[in-house]
Amino acid sequence: VSVSNLVETLFMLLLEHEMMVVQPTTVMHLDNAMDMLICSSLMSSLSFLGVIAIDRYITIFYALRYHSIMTIQRAVTIIVVVWVVSSISSTIFIAYDGKAVILCLVIFFLSMITLIMGLYIHMFSLAHQHARRISSLQRKQSAPHFTSMRGAITLTILLGVFFICWGPFFLHLILILTCPEKPACNCYFRYFNLYLILLICNSV
């Protein structure tokens, strides 16, 4: 995500300041190629965040069977499938550019958000219950609160950074679908480069 965004931003700046002269058709082809790269990297990045959440879920709820469920071969297969599907999808999206594409990206984003939040909240609730049981056995009343707070802070950081970095970009896409002509929406559209910088920060 970072590399593709940086390359496109640099390319746009060079064109704007007339430091690079390119034929309009070449610019269009390069723009399509970079849009495809950005789209595929965005989709794969979101997909991998979902896959990591699923992997952590398996680690906690199927701890004894984890190594039989998540083998190296399956892990490699998942990585390849995510990249291939993301690349094919992004190629189709760029070929059939339009509001339907933006709608698909927004639905995909909301689906991944729901999946990730659902899994992490379930894991956190299990950890909270586990801490309470240990505390009741050891007769220490302070332990569950401390463990719960530490878990809550970790979960807040994970999801908070994710929302801060990805939220503005996908709000931009949602506004393109819902109110592209309104002055308030047009004002929000002006800061698109800032939203791309946030995506780069998230990758870092």
Word description of this protein:
The protein is mainly alpha-helical and 204 residues long. The chain has a domain at 67-130 and 148-179. It is 87% helix and 0% strand. It contains 8 helices and no strands. It has helices at residues 2-16, 24-61, 66-69, 72-95, 99-138, 142-178, 183-189, 192-203. The protein is elongated. 11% of the residues are buried. The mean pLDDT is 82.
Write the layout of secondary structure elements.
Elements: H1 2-16, H2 24-61, H3 66-69, H4 72-95, H5 99-138, H6 142-178, H7 183-189, H8 192-203
Helix pairs in contact: 1-2, 1-8, 2-4, 2-5, 5-6, 6-8
List keywords for this structure.
mainly alpha; receptor; transducer; about 200 residues; about 85% helix
Number of strands: 0
Mean pLDDT over the residues: 82
What low-confidence regions span 5 or more consecutive residues with pLDDT below 50?
none
Order of SSEs: HHHHHHHH
What spatial form do the alpha-carbon principal axes imply?
elongated
Q: What is the helical fraction, as a range of percent?
A: over 70%
Q: Could you give the distance between the termini?
A: 10 Å
Largest beta sheet, briefly? none
Radius of gyration over C-alpha positions, nearest whole angstrom = 21 Å
How is the quaternary structure best described?
single chain
Please work out how many helical segments DSSP would assign: 8
- What structural class do helix, strand and pairing data support? mainly alpha
Which percent range describes the beta-strand content? under 5%
